[in-house]
Amino acid sequence: MAIASRATKRALSTFAAAKLPEEAVAAAAAGEAIAARSHQAVPLPPAPASSVRPLQFEDTGRLFAGEPTSALLRTLAALQALSVGPLVDAATAALRSPAVAGSALGRAAARATAYRHFCAGETADEAAAVVRRLWRGGMGGILDYGIEDAEDGHACDRNAAGFVSAVDVAASLPPGSASVCIKITALCPIALLEKASDLLRWQKKHPSFSLPWKTHSFPVLSDSSPLHLTASEPAALTAEEERELQLAHSRLLAVCARCAEHGIPLLVDAEYATVQPAIDYFTLVGALAFNDAGAADGGRPIVHGTIQAYLRDARDRLEAMVRGAERERVRLGLKVVRGAYLTREARLAAALGVPSPVHGSIQETHDCYNGCAAFLLDRVRRGSASVMLATHNVESGQLAAARAQELGIPKGDRNLQFAQLMGMADGLSLSLRNAGFQVSKYLPYGPVEQIIPYLIRRAEENRGLLSASSFDRQLLRKELVRRVKAMVAGRE
């Protein structure tokens, strides 16, 4: 295989000089796994109980075929750095500091490190180029204009225009290659989302409580939801707040309409518990308007919400949504994730002295994710739902792929998609692609200072409870050692 640059050749020569046998690589990986467990990282996943193993990782030469060695080295270096807890703590503290993150030097450092690894560029055109590259390699891209937490209506209007622009860029790409992801916190002021969420929780506890601004009764909460976050009756929305809420509806529907015009799937991200009820409420406003259950072509619905499996109420809310969709004759579209706000949720629960909304163990989260995935795959088989399984967990990928095969879901069915973040779980993405499944990478883009909250979550995720990067690093090392051996053998 041709080596991309002299720098890459020098790096490979260093590998060759070390003459690392695969046993040494395995031992090093095992040592890392032990160290990672001290930081509560996830150990390498066991094989699924099923004898069916649609995803193959043993042949890393086939797995990473076509991936430049320079890219593998960069990915390994980034993931290795992110696995060092003290380094991540120092980096996230710096990113949270306005003095550092707001300085030219701080932005340059972020751009050269985490930003380069996890982000697709500063502009939509740069992100579109990444989608085209992925599409040539058999995968799609999810364009995410990385804005969130708007403070006022003017910011929301700018953000809505940015989302519409992202849809237009997606429409210019090869058909089927791109979808668009948005955050409701970018379309509605945070304070209003928090207040609306309080009101929705209070109404769940007191069904006779009237909310005159509600436009639908689709369930967004369950009895197991963290209703204790609203301890007393909240004040009603003022006339001005109701007007602002209606403007947020209009912004969302404008983005949905542009997606419907071009046939671009729209994925609405889940966020944190204090605002999630309002986010789900907004998402269902879009779904009710644009997801026609009677569509004759069996294509994907336009609007997709998100279920976070690390939340204790995830399965209950999922089942309530499915029942609501059947009642309202809406085609349900959902993205299933584990969740990325673990630190924030734990901190808030501790400050309030209330139970965390997150499962008490990583295994409970895994079980919830796998159960939600199996539940939705059955709905995909029936033709009543569309699902994107966003996971970095190899066992979950194996189980879902095996279950899809058992159910007879065609691999070309657009209503079953897998997804991983840019810069993470590339081995899983490539294995799913090689097995014939439809896979996309999540591609955030925008100015560095705008993407900093996203970068902080990725750094915390890679060293935290839900980390699967040790498996990624093991695959990368194995392939790099294989390439070193092949290069050395070619010289002899």
Automatic annotation (TrEMBL):
Start and end residues of each Proline dehydrogenase domain: 131-467
Pfam families: Pro_dh
EC nos: 1.5.5.2
Keywords, ordered alphabetically: FAD, Flavoprotein, Oxidoreductase, Proline metabolism
Reactions it catalyzes: L-proline + a quinone = (S)-1-pyrroline-5-carboxylate + a quinol + H(+)
InterPro entries: FAD-linked_oxidoreductase-like, Proline_DH_dom, Proline_oxidase
GO molecular function: FAD binding; proline dehydrogenase activity
GO cellular component, as recorded: mitochondrion
Cofactor(s), names only, from the UniProt record: FAD
Domain of life: Eukaryota
GO process annotations (BP): L-proline catabolic process to L-glutamate
Function: Converts proline to delta-1-pyrroline-5-carboxylate.
Family note: Belongs to the proline oxidase family.
Protein's recorded name: Proline dehydrogenase
Native source species: Zea mays
Taxonomy of the source species: Eukaryota, Viridiplantae, Streptophyta, Embryophyta, Tracheophyta
